[in-house]
């Protein structure tokens, strides 16, 4: 049960990308699979020396969303996966759900919802949920 079209999802990704100064990730939706992933782009070892604008011309992330997963709405899945995209641009490809990712997700959900409590932190990975509780993003 999805209430958002592919075009609407892409528009959200473009808006988020503009706000955070990164190139929009490619979006792939698969109706019959579960689980969503951020495919980390190839990072040349010299890229850490580059500015964000220079990184934009090299990196191209891909978000794959399995629409058959009933636990997460497409909207919140996009926010989680976009936070991976932003984290990859800022910190490189080695971060999974550690603190830099949590900080990205905090920024992304605050921009998108205006109020971080509207994001379902209780359904997040334990380390992400604990971060949200510790810094007061949710009850
Ligand atoms: Zn993740």
Describe the structure.
- The chain is mainly alpha-helical and 139 residues long.
- It has a single domain, classed as 2-Layer Sandwich (Zincin-like), CATH 3.30.2010.
- The chain has 5 helices and 3 strands, in the order H-E-E-H-E-H-H-H.
- It has helices at 6-20, 52-56, 74-91, 99-113, 126-134; strands at residues 26-30, 36-39, 62-66.
- A 3-stranded mixed β-sheet has the order 1-3-2, covered by helices on one side.
- The chain starts with 5 loop residues before the first helix and ends in a 5-residue tail after the last helix.
- The mean pLDDT is 90.
- Zinc ion binds at residues 80, 84, 97.
- Zinc ion binds next to helix 3.
**CATH top level class name:** Alpha Beta
Strand order of the largest sheet: 1-3-2
The CATH topology annotation reads as Zincin-like
**What does the overall shape look like?**
globular
Strand content: 5-15%
The largest sheet is: 3 strands, mixed
| Structure class | mainly alpha
Mean pLDDT: 90
Q: Please provide the count of β strands.
A: 3
| End-to-end CA span | 28 Å
Q: Taking Cα atoms only, what radius of gyration do you get, to the nearest Å?
A: 15 Å
Q: Which distinct ligands sit in these coordinates?
A: zinc ion
Task: Supply the CATH architecture.
Answer: 2-Layer Sandwich
Total tally of structural domains = 1
Order of helices and strands: HEEHEHHH
Number of H- or I-type helical stretches: 5
Helix content: 40-55%
Poorly predicted regions? none
Oligomer: single chain
């Amino acid at each position: 049960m999805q209430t958002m079209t592919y075009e609407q999802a892409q528009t959200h990704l473009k808006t988020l990308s503009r706000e955070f100064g990164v190139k929009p990730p490619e979006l792939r939706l698969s109706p019959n699979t579960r689980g969503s992933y951020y495919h980390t782009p190839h990072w040349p070892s010299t890229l850490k020396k580059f500015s964000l604008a220079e990184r934009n011309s090299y990196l191209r992330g891909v978000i794959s969303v399995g629409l058959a997963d009933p636990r997460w709405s497409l909207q919140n899945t996009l926010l989680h996966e976009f936070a991976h995209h932003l984290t990859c641009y800022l910190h490189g490809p080695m971060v999974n759900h550690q603190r830099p990712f949590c900080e990205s997700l905090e920024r992304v959900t605050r921009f998108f919802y205006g109020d971080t409590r509207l994001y379902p932190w209780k359904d997040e990975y334990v380390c992400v949920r604990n971060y949200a509780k510790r810094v007061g993003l949710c009850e």
